[in-house]
Design goal:
Rossmann fold; seven-stranded parallel β-sheet; three-stranded mixed β-sheet; 38% helix; globular
Amino acid sequence: MTVAVLGGTGLIGRHVIAALRQAATPVVATANRRPAFELQGVDWRRADLTVPDSARAAVRGCRSVVICAGRLSTAAELKRDPVGSVTTTLRIGINGLEAAAAEQAERVVLVSSTTGYPAGAGPKVEEAMFDGDPPGDWFGVGWVHRFLEKQLDWYCRLKRIGAGIALRPTLVYGPHVDFDPASAHFVPSFIRRVVEREKPIEIWGDGSQSRNLIHAADVASAIVAALQDTAPGFGAYNVSASASSSVKEVLTALVELDRFDDAEIVYRPERASGAAALDVSADAFSARYGWRPEISLRAGLAGTLAWYRSAR
C-alpha cells in the first residue's frame, strides 16, 4: 500500500521515508522549498501544501497519509515572529487533512506536538492535553496542534477518514535538523557552536533545565508502527525518549564527542527562559504498539554531529 508523506524533505519526513523504504513500502512524497533527494521507490510530487488543490494532488491514489509538514516553531522562531510559523502550520495541516478525507484515506498519521500541553509538574500523559492553555509563547502553536488533532478526530467520527493517529513527539533532533541560528533549537545550536569552536559557549540558565530529546529515526519507527495498525477510529499518543536530559548534559556530551578539550562554558542564570523541565510519558503508545526508542542520546548526538561536520 502506497503511503503519502507530506513534508518529505523535512527532518521527520526524511527519516519516515527511509524507514518505509527499508520495509519496501512504496512512497509518494512532497517537496516544496527544499530539493527532493534520490531514493528508489519514492514518487516525488512538487506541492505547495498551503494551497488546497496542491495538497489534494499530493495524496491522490494513496490509502495512507503521514502529515509531518509545517513550519518549525522553536522558541527562537516564535520570538522572532510569533505568528508566521504558526499560521502556516495551521494552513498546511488543514489542507493535508482535508485532502486525506477527500481521497477517503484509510489511515492518517498526524505529527502533532507536546507544545499543546499546559504547564504543570510531573510527566505529561495524553489525557492532560486539554487541561488548560499552553503556556507563554507556546499558546498559539500549542492550540494549532490541538485543533488539528480534533479535526482528525472529527473526520474519523464522520467516517471520512478510516482511522487517525496523532503522535506527539518531544524535542526532535538528528541529521537534517535545522541549524539556522535564527530558528534552531538548542541541540543543533550547541552542535554548530562546538564544531566552530566558539568561545565561550553560553548556556542561558544554570544548565539544569531538562528536555526530553528524541531522535528523528525513533519518531519514524513510531510512525511506521502506527501505520501498521488496522483498528478504526482516532487515538493520540506521546512519543518520547525513555528519560530527559539536562541542557548541561547535552553540551558536555557534545564537547567530549568532538574533543573540544579547551571549551569554555559560561552560564547566564539571569537569561533563563522556558520551563525548568518538560517530562513526557510514552507509556501508552509503547503498551499498545510494543514500540521503544532505540537510539541513545549519546549515539544520536554523535551521529548528528558527524552529519553536520560532513554536510556544512
